Amino acid sequence: KAGVTQTPRYLIKTRGQQVTLSCSPISGHRSVSWYQQTPGQGLQFLFEYFSETQRNKGNFPGRFSGRQFSNSRSEMNVSTLELGDSALYLCASSRTGTGAYEQYFGPGTRLTVT
Amino acid sequence: GENVEQHPSTLSVQEGDSAVIKCTYSDSASNYFPWYKQELGKRPQLIIDIRSNVGEKKDQRIAVTLNKTAKHFSLHITETQPEDSAVYFCASSKGWGGSQGNLIFGKGTKLSVKP
Q1: Which of A56, A72, A86, B6 is the most exposed place for a label (fewest CB within 10 A)?
Q2: Secondary structure E strands in chain B
Q3: What digits encode the pLDDT tens for the residues B82-103?
Q4: A100 — pLDDT class (breaks 50, 70, 90)
């Protein structure tokens, strides 16, 4: 099976701009979660989508949003970019269901805000 | 809020020695505890996990133990090899059998295995 894929892999944006990142889960996986990884804060949960609905949300401002499509692919959007948004953004997919909560990560999108 | 503390932050061992990384979680409702290995520039890779109904799980040179009373769990790597060098993250979630599957991560342990 193909793994989780993310596009683009690298992105450079300017403060105030917005950005959209994409994630394609493993075939058959219906849940997609997004995480932000920075050297200072580590790995932090942004949100989770399941069946096109946001199921859980972390403690990030409303500038961070996401959505999921009927094929389980997911996008996240960050509006009005700030320098502190520079990070590696990782998505993870999961089959969900009892006893099946392993999450598998994509390679990430490295976002640099200048 | 929910918190996972991980120790040590760095660990250096000789090839062939054992390595132990410890984590403590705060939410007693947590029931799923995965460990991830992240090599430089690569994605976090799930290496082993344990659910709250089990006290120990082993996979070749890697084992994880869970003490629910004390709310801590540990990763044990035996016969370490240079390719074990990476950053290891522990995590907890309430997702097993439920809908709150978001992972709460520890800060990571940088393991260096010297040949």
Answers
A1: A86
A2: 4-7, 10-14, 19-25, 32-38, 45-51, 56-59, 62-67, 72-77, 86-94, 100-105, 109-114
A3: 999 999 999 999 876 666 678 9
A4: low
**Do residues B26 and B4 touch, judged by C-beta distance below 8 A?**
yes
Contact B17, A78 (CB under 8 A): no
Task: Collect all residues of chain B within an 8 Å Cβ-Cβ radius of residue A55.
Answer: 99
Contacts of A92 in chain B (CB under 8 A): 103
Output Rg (C-alpha) for chain B, integer angstroms. Answer: 14
Nearest residue, CB atoms, A102 vs list B34, B99, B100 = B34
State the nearest Cα–Cα gap between A111 and chain B, in angstroms: 14
Q: CA of A18, closest CA in chain B: separation in Å?
A: 24
What's the confidence (pLDDT) of residue A97? Answer: 55
Query: Both tokens of residue A31?
Result: 């849940």
Here the tokens at position B65 are 């133990």
- Confirm or reject contact between B27 and chain A (CB < 8 A): no
- Report pLDDT digits (tens) over A16-69: 999 999 999 999 999 999 999 999 899 999 999 988 999 889 999 999 999 999
Chain B partners within 8 Å of A48 (Cβ):
101-102
CB pairs under 8 A between A and B: 62
Of the CA atoms within 13 Å of residue A110, those in its CB half-sphere come to: 7
| For range B52-73, the mean pLDDT | 95
